[in-house]
Amino acid sequence: MYVYANVYQHAYGNLKYFIENAVREHDGVDYIFILQQTENKPIDESKMPPLPKTNAFYFQHENNCFDYGTMGWFLDKYTIGNPWQKQSSITNSNMNNNKTNRIFDIRRYKYFIFMNASIRGPFFPPYFLQFLSDYENEFNAPYYWYYIFTKRINDKVKLVGSTISCIPVPHVQSYLMITDFTGLSILLKDSTTSGGRIHTGVFGCYSSKSDTTQVSEIGISTIILNSGYLIDCLIPKFQTIDFSKKGNYKCPVYANPYADKSIDGTSLEPYVVIFVKYNDKGSTTEPQDRAMLYQHWMEAVKTKNRTSW
């Protein structure tokens, strides 16, 4: 589920890059792109990046919630299978208020990916892409971009992302989060009202960014940890750390990991964390500049008809 809000100059480019480099028709994923409207003005989808016809869909929503409130709106209106809902009444309500007549049964899915348009990716080094090509040819089995994240989810780990921040407590940063059905069920329990609607908790709609950060971004990891599971990310320094126990980790509480030189004097490497912040903020220049350069190199390879992946 991808929330797009055109609130800074790189948002469209980030969306376009992701669709062109990650979204495929037969990669075992249903892609939901939620376009945030301004003043209830419909967005012309013909001007948005084209999507595969069978497994990728645009939906539109007024931008009156932050990302996870908007995701809650979608889960409430367009899905069934929430274990904390009475399915018959919710299914009828969803169908009656659903202009597309498209309903997604979340019980059909093993993993759930939540992301927004503040990041650009995925970025993979050429040698890894060559490895994937050789692997697929040799074993006749696909290896999809999201495996980097989903293969980290197991009986103990239920939430994964590119980065973990310790401001003010350890949490997977909200621009990219991946969980499985068990993890989503835990989060939905926090967000489902007694009437069966997904209107509160981590998927609630909040008017301020600070409330959203505290309740949704930090709250998601807190709920997963308090439920006895672990969180994980791709930052090399944070590998195999049990963030549920304070004495197990030493990470900075004064700088976001995506800020320049915030991890032991170094900056994030796009080829390591796969997705990097790519927006208008001046504190993330080094990862963003590298991502821009890597994208330029990749496009040059394709333009010159050299071997590409």
So how many helices?
Answer: 9
User: Strand order of the main beta sheet, please?
Assistant: 3-2-1-6-11
Number of strands: 13
Q: Are there runs of 5+ residues with pLDDT below 50, and where?
A: none
How large a portion of the residues is in β-strands, by DSSP E? 15-25%
Oligomer: single chain
Structure, described:
There is one protein chain. By secondary structure, this protein is of the alpha/beta class. It has one domain (2-303). It has 9 helices and 13 strands. The chain has helices at residues 11-22, 67-78, 87-96, 126-139, 147-150, 181-191, 209-226, 270-273, 285-303, and strands at 2-4, 31-37, 56-62, 79-80, 104-105, 111-116, 119-120, 157-161, 164-165, 171-172, 176-180, 230-233, 276-277. The strands form 5 sheets. The chain has a 5-stranded mixed sheet with strand order 3-2-1-6-11, sandwiched between helices. A two-stranded parallel sheet has the order 4-5. Helix 1 (11-22) links the parallel strand 1 and strand 2. It starts with a strand and ends in a 6-residue tail after the last helix.
